[in-house]
Amino acid sequence: MKLWAGRFKKEIDKKTNDFNSSIAFDQRMYKQDINGSIAHAKMLGKQGIISADESRLIAEELNNILNEIESGKLAIDPDTEDIHTFIESELTKRIQDTGKKLHTARSRNDQVVLDLRLYLIEEIDILQDQIKELIEVLLNKAEKYSQSVMPGYTHLQRAQPVTFGHHLMAYVEMLLRDLDRLNDCRKRTNISPLGAGALAGTTYDLNRQYVAEILGMDGVTHNSLDSVSDRDFAIELVSVLSILMVHLSRFSEEIILWCSFEFRFIELDDAFSTGSSIMPQKKNPDIAELVRGKSGRVFGDLMTLLTVMKGLPLAYNKDMQEDKEAVFDALDTVKMCLTAFTPMLDTMKVNTQNMRNAAAGGFINATDCADYLVSKGLPFRDAYKATGELVARCIELNKTLETLDISEYKSVCDLFDEDVYEFISLERCVNQRRVYGGTSPECVKAQIERVRKIISNM
Ligand code: ARG
Q1: Ligand 1 centroid distance, CA of 51 (Å)
Q2: 267-292: average pLDDT
């Protein structure tokens, strides 16, 4: 029996019922639906809209329903239209006329958006914990490898030496901003729309603030039409998740490169790698590839939400039922990615010698060689040109700046002396980059300390 049975002469067509129904995916909000209803019933009682006894009975029975769903004693009926309908009809089955009073001064339109907000808040909290866990792993690794020299790249060409710790801390900074964006998004989500009714508010003397307080929400929405029409809190969350996935995907791309035989900077643990069905030598970074691939899903979910919402007139439209699958899929995907990604990183082996060898192979210290001449008084542009000539000479002779004879140096510029070798040593190149945010081990340690403080104050 439908909620609207009074107005209709026929039951809904069976297949159309399935099409119209959202129970398959909104049943995961049963707890939020029940808690929202308990808060509503308490408020109705407090305001004298229903009696104190009725309010108590409704709250008590809703709690029983919650416990029974959680223990598996009560199964959610897949033939009901949505989770709101299921809970209300279950309540009415149990306490008859009193149950029928629960929906006084409420619509599913304000109910569904409350449920979704409550659900997303819990998910944001879980996600933030997962991101913090990843940050912890990265901080420990960054500390361990704060002295390990590797090539830093631009255009994927060896550019200047950095430390592996510094490189990892770059991702920590991105993740910190993701945490911050989630905080922001949480603030705008944790607001109660209940009391907006179907769209126009209600004639009953509600205490909306009291409902928000019971639910631990930070306030109430200010316009009833907006309250039931707004899904931008969900769009915002999936935007934040998309940005997070960009970060995880870039990181994954690097992991994949670093695992390749050409780089061999890291080796993933067997527990986080896969083999090939035909090539016995293969060890594949599938987890990182999947994270990179799944970013596409999350961006797709964002596009779904934006497209569903973009042409809708105010206020509620059934199109908005489509919001949930997209936002749930994005959340499930990101949580799954983090669940695999964090231990994969935690257990990876780092080949610092290969990193150092790669850094020593090119002309990664050419900038420092030019800086040497600047320290001897040559203007930077001239120093740059002289170093360019040196590099060309090295290529001709199949040498590096470290192995090129001092006579070659002197033939290019007589300001060069034996101390140039010490000046352009990779360790010195790294240690000298002491500017705030730089790659020197002491700067990296300061970055780590800063983040540790921020995380412990969260
Ligand atoms: N299942 C619906 C949704 O997810 C609940 C709200 C339905 N309201 C309505 N008037 N049809 O959006």
Answers
A1: 28
A2: 87
